[in-house]
Design goal:
Layout (H helix, E strand, L loop, with lengths): L2 H27 L1 E7 L2 E8 L4 E2 L15 E4 L6 E3 L2 E2 L4 E4 L6 E5 L15 E10 L12 E5 L5 E6 L2 E2 L4 E5 L5 E5 L5 E3 L6 E11 L3 E3 L2 E3 L1 E12 L16
Parallel strand pairs: 9-19
Antiparallel strand pairs: 1-2, 2-3, 2-7, 4-5, 4-8, 6-7, 8-9, 10-11, 11-12, 11-15, 13-14, 13-16, 16-19, 17-18
């Protein structure tokens, strides 16, 4: 090996590791969120507050298949709804007037061996509710649900309140505010504008586990809650979508 090759080898390894790290961080920075209108639900992947929606062909294809949607109405059993991949979302046909919708997306195990770290599983999920006035029972490992009190949400991890969790709320304009959950897992936000809001919470659990025969050393969760307010001040529009590079 020449001296130039010896110098280039560590640089190439560093660049490859940096590329892998960028891919991991980019996925984790994103979220999935649900929108529902006119009998159609859409599960987006990107960043709501930046009006960024990943597309297919592209990063939307990285998921392991089309996530199933769970539709729930008061007094009725939950219904499973199959969807399909569209240009900028997974799309579902809803029936009746659901009280809540939920979807958990499956993402490939993230290899972090170049950083001498165990593999990580990234578990994004999304919930949509028709109203904040009705409390919703959590069903996901990491869930964010309305309590029924004005502006109050609750963070639950594996059935128990998650104190000190950071919850970020994005307003219809993309403006964001963060609050820390109390000992009971609750946060309260002021929501002055009418339109769609998306709240997000993240949690990392370094308990090793296994999924479909693949072992991991850390589970990273991100869950969103979407709701639409009919009353309030008129909100500025979301920013223009980021330009493709």
């Amino acid at each position: 090996m020449s001296s130039n090759q010896r110098l280039q080898a560590p640089l190439l390894s560093a660049l490859l590791a940096c590329g892998a790290l960028t891919a991991v961080n980019s996925a984790q920075a994103h979220q999935v969120w649900l929108e529902n209108a006119g009998g159609q639900a859409r599960l987006h992947f990107g960043e709501f507050n930046e009006n960024l929606r990943e597309t297919s062909p592209g990063r939307l294809d990285q998921f392991k298949g089309v996530p199933a949607l769970e539709q729930q109405r008061a007094g009725a059993a939950a219904q499973r709804v199959e969807g399909q991949l569209a240009k900028d979302a997974f799309v579902y046909t809803t029936t009746g007037t659901p009280d809540t919708l939920f979807a958990a997306a499956s993402y490939p195990l993230i290899d972090r061996s170049k950083r001498n770290l165990p593999a990580m599983i990234w578990q994004p999920s999304a919930r949509w509710v028709a109203s904040l006035a009705k409390p919703v029972a959590p069903t996901a490992p990491l869930d964010l649900v309305p309590t029924g009190k004005p502006g109050e949400l609750k963070v639950v991890y594996k059935g128990a309140p998650l104190p000190k969790a950071k919850v970020q709320l994005a307003a219809p304009s993309g403006w964001t505010r963060e609050a820390e959950a109390g000992e009971d897992g609750t946060v309260t936000f002021v929501t002055p504008w009418k339109g769609q809001y998306v709240a997000e919470v993240k949690h990392s659990d370094k308990t090793p586990g296994e999924v479909q025969g693949e072992k991991y050393g850390e589970a990273s969760y991100v869950t969103t809650l979407t709701f639409v307010l009919a009353d309030g001040m008129a909100s500025p529009a979301l920013p223009e979508p980021p330009k493709a590079h």
